[in-house]
Amino acid sequence: MFWAKEQSDDDLLRRVVADDEEAFALLYRRWQGPVYRFARHMSGSAVVAEDVTQEVFIVLIGQSNRFDPALGTFCGYLLGIARNQVRRRFETDRVLVPLPETEGFDQDTRNAKGGNGHHPAMMIAPIDFSRTDTITSVRKAVLSLPERYREAVVLCDLQEMTYEEAAAIVGCAVGTVRSRLHRGRTLLAAKLRNLRTPQPKSVARESEKL
Length: 210
What we know:
Radius of gyration: 20 Å
Oligomer: single chain
Number of domains: 2
Helix content: 55-70%
CATH topology of the largest domain: Arc Repressor Mutant, subunit A
CATH architecture of the largest domain: Orthogonal Bundle
């Protein structure tokens, strides 16, 4: 019924706790997209993203009474489950991209603890993910980021979550999310710089000969 579609997540979740299959179906249709996109960006695999999405909602059935709205949004709760599922797949599935850590950039916690939480490089703008000519390149660049920076970019720039929501999902301080997002954007900008400043034809021709 139409009125059921207008119910809040909390209302639907209460019905799920009472074994209401219709309410579960409504929640699934409402949130499977964001969960799938998060898992796809983090894993780089459509198959893995589909598996993780299914696993998230299976977990939800078994833990539907554990969501606490005082700790964050329902979407954040689902993405937190998705994050755990993706990380498990990182440990067991060779299809996934490895998660290297970048040496020399382990300033997350120190930056988060010092000062007023601001950093000059926080002014770096998000990458324009709407440009169709860069979507494929951006996806590859995001996937190549170390896990902690990738999470920050996916949550804040792709999922459009607030720093507070992202921090709740990752389980860290808001300042740490800001620092990781800054570093992730910096790395992405470096990887995508050639898209913004195309090489002259003469240089491109020489590069093709190599």
